[in-house]
Amino acid sequence: MDIQRLSTLQASQEASAAPTGKRKGVAADSKQTQRQDPVQISSQGRDSERQQADAVATSRAAALPEVRDDRVEQAQTRVNQGYYDSPEVQDKLADTLARSLTQSKS
Q1: pLDDT, tens digit, for every residue of 78-87?
Q2: Is position 40 within any domain?
Q3: Comparing 58-62, 93-97, 100-104, which segment has the lowest mean pLDDT?
Q4: Is the dihedral of CA 4, 10, 12, 15 positive or negative?
């Protein structure tokens, strides 16, 4: 009697493991069905994400070089006055850029 139950159970397991042509989650035309589950993020999770983003932004800002307002104002004035449009300044700028590019490759 126990042997009969065992062989019935084994046959049942083999039958369920055998491929039947139908798979769970696959439509009859073999295209996978699209299912979208809703996602809800708690306010605590959103706050934690904001805090992490703020910490990253703060550390990146701290790594930036100091902004010298007097130099920024001077450059803006020169741009507005056309200082950088003169051929002499453009040549000097081109030379400086060329030197910095060749030095960075070395």
Answers
A1: 999 999 999 9
A2: no
A3: 100-104
A4: negative
The H-assigned helical ranges of 1-106 are 2-17, 43-63, 69-81, 87-105
Residue 91, in any domain of the structure: yes
Report the amino acid identity of residue 96: T
Q: What domain range includes position 95?
A: 75-100
Give a yes or no: residue 64 inside a domain.
no
Q: Which residues contact 93 (CB under 8 A, 6 or more apart)?
A: 84
Domain count, the chain: 1
* Cα–Cα separations (whole angstroms), residue 55 to 16, 45, 51, 59, 61: 53, 15, 6, 6, 10
3 belongs to a structural domain:
no
> Which tops the pLDDT comparison, 20 or 36?
36
What's the CA gap between 101 and 51, in Å, rounded? 39
| Least confident among 31-35, 62-66, 75-79, 101-105 | 31-35
The total of other beta-carbon atoms located within 10 Å of residue 69's CB is 8
